[in-house]
Design goal:
Number of helices: 19
CATH class: Alpha Beta
CATH superfamily: Glycosidases
Strand order of the largest sheet: 9-6-3-2-1-12-11-10
Number of strands: 12
Shape: globular
Strand content: 5-15%
CATH architecture: Alpha-Beta Barrel
Radius of gyration: 23 Å
Amino acid sequence: MLRRRSSGILLHVTSLPSPYGIGDLGPAAYTFADFLQAAGQNYWQMLPLNHTTAMTRYSPYNCFSAFAGNPLLISPDLLYQAGYLMKAELKDPPRFPADRVDYACVARYKGTILESAFRRFGANRKPADYELFLREHSSWLEPYAAFVALKRHFKGRRWCDWPAGWRDFGVRVSDSGLEKALAANPQSDLSDESAIINPQWIEQERFFQYVFYRQYMDLKRYCGTQGVLIAGDVPIYVAYDSADVWSHPDLFKLTAARKPRFQAGVPPDYFSKTGQLWRNPVYDWQRMEQTHFRWWMQRIKHNLLLFDLVRIDHFRGLIAYWEVPGAHETAMRGKWVQVPHGKFFAELFRQVPFPALFVEDLGYITADVREAVAKYNFPRMSVLQFAFGGDPAHNPHMPHNVAENSIIYTGTHDNNTARAWFEKDLTRPGRERLFEYFGCKVSAEEVPWELIRVAMGSVAKLAIIPMQDVLGLGAQARMNTPAKSNGNWQWRMRPGETTARLAERLRTLTAAYGRA
């Protein structure tokens, strides 16, 4: 599938500079696209763009919806340009940290900004494409808008703790649409059901999604004009407290009270001695099969419209997944459960003959996973931070062992930065192997660019470099530490770091290895 040698940068939208406390889809995103073009890069890889929540510490892999965009990524500057905000409403934003995202502060500030934009939107004639957007996305947008409005009404309580009529209401919305479901007037123990779903709250969520997708698709088109393709990411699981589980409870292994019978995770691995307990509900694949995997097909098609190339996170979970009883506090005592992956991929290729997908096949990978990757010819991943341990003749992450149809990284969003990895995590034997591979000893400051050189020179068709490594940053710029609950997803670039000199250095190296 990967037809030409190319390269790109991994940078989540939240990490862009912005005066509003968090990176967004506005001017800095366009500036970054220009930087990528000047640097000879063909790809911008992003993390999932879905609606993150405080309950899951704003992880882009644990969201309110597998389809809805994150309102915090909406650009206030573009809202002003569209006429939804006045200039005075953007004056004097709070004094946000320059290199970190303070999500609680951003959520309060942007919540006020977005509500102002919605009031102005409601007072004016709707754009010509607004109703079309609602119709095209109704299958996920209506359950999502109802879910968020009910979460607001019930002051953030989990949907399983709502009165039974509203706990089960998501199925009705999914089956018949919001208007028909409301007309049926479900029974609950609340005295005034008609007032529960505030129509203004519903319309507000529709508006936020409309603006998000319009801003995002405008950015995607601009990247295309610069010769930059966008790679996206599909998390294998969804959050339990999400519109997806609320509206499709039959697709997950839940109890009669609609609570998780099992939770997802991985057994003990490189990142954690007790495994990783993700607490996501696991899929009921038998039921999925009965529906011809309809929800998954919709999800993949949705992401293929948003991105030019899509990564399937934790791909092994589509072959066999680690299932942990719901009451357990670690992932150690789980078990592997098989997925009907042959039927799943047959349905996928029937509906989408040539999907632009690649797979995250890191961690505990068994023969059945390797066979599936080879059978379907999916590009796979290699990570240089995993390359300098074990036997160099057989380590699959060593550049001389990677497949041509693969994507090589210096590190991913789950790794430390290259500089911090060298300084803190790499063993002395690992350092010796690294220097032998480089052909010389280098300082910690020089390690990131030497690793970039190795990645660019590899046979892998696509090389992706985290922006932190391009900037040569240390541990303070790490994006995520698996199995750690706090302090993740916060790093941001400072304004002015994407200089013309940096772009030229990257372009020269990229061209030298035939990737520009």
